[in-house]
Amino acid sequence: MAEIIPFDETGIARAAGLLARGGVVIVPTETVYGVACHPAFPDALERIRAMKRRDRAKPFQLLAADAAAVWADGALRSPEAERLAAHWPGALTLVLQAGQGGRTEGYRVPDLAPLRTLLARCGGLLRCTSVNLSGEPPAKDAREAAEALGGAVDLVLDGGPARLGVASTVAALSPEGKPRILRQGALRL
Question: N or C: less crowded end of the chain, CB within 10 Å?
Answer without folding.
Answer: N
